[in-house]
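User: Some background: our group keeps a shared notebook of sequences we're curious about, and every so often someone picks one and asks for a predicted structure to add to the entry. Today it's my turn. The entry only has the sequence so far, pasted here. Could you supply the structure so I can complete it?
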Amino acid sequence: MKIAGQISIDDIPQNYPLVSRVVNSQYGEKGTRVVEVAGVRFGGERPVVIGGPCAVESHEQTVGLAHAVKRAGADMLRGGAYKPRTSPHDFQGSGLEGLCILKIAREQTGLPIVTEVMDPRLVGEVAQVADMLQVGSRNMHNYTLLAEVGRARKPVLLKRGMSASLCEWLGAAEYIAKQGNLDIVLCERGIRGFPSGEYSRYVLDLNVIPAAKMLTFLPIIVDPSHATGVSAMVEPASRAALEMGSHGLLIEVADFSMGVPKCDGLQAIDATTLARIVEFAHRSEARSQKSGVRRQEPGVRSQESDDGSPKEERPTSGISKVVVGASSNQNP
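Assistant: Of course. Here's the predicted structure to add to the notebook entry:
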């Protein structure tokens, strides 16, 4: 039965052709588009680890954590100058001052910055400082913002909405791609389910990683901090995400000697824990190389034809059928 406004996985090539794997046959069945951010490569052989505070609170806090993240071996610095909060009375970030602090942190450590932009009117301002623009979970459906970040010509980290389906998530990516920007990294950050709030903040949907890879060539990373909401769960969730094929991690880090963070302190880990996660990520890369399993770079997969000349191998329609078959038995 056809229902107005409903899009299924089978509709993705027609509705979201710019990010569809089937339509973009140059990536084959498993190839990933490498998104480069100031020398850091998402979708390459090495998982990317991003660490830093939830929110930029002060110069001392952010710059100090940037150095700690650097020593831990992480690749990029995260930190919110502008923060969407459930309560309008909670700390909302440091705004323009926070952007200036992030710029200083990058100058001192060399770590590229990813930070969230919430308002289409602020995209230009944030893009002047950020190496990568983040669209948060609450703004995944903000189509005006998605179009504006697409026009900014900066790599975009697109978080999954907390109640969004995979189809809706890829639809948001299509809005960015429509502006001529395919430098998009997807980020799974947990979705709402009936256990949410009972023993974890959200439900970390690791099943979406292989499903997304079947449908799109965009790299995908995981935010275990928001997904769990519990600092003790972040490290095992990070390991599980990497084992499921995540191209990287986005993790909140805090220096508790400076007091409890103003934003989401219960889900932040310390730099020592971050260093263990980075070490595991590097071992994960080494295991993949040793076993001969490598993350595929963009390019057309080919095989020899009957006369010995190379011929193009296109993805089969079975990609969507596999996912549809896996999801058809689930309850709505």
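Suggested note for the entry: The first strand starts at residue 35 and ends at 37. The domain at 11-325 is CATH 3.20.20.70 (TIM Barrel).
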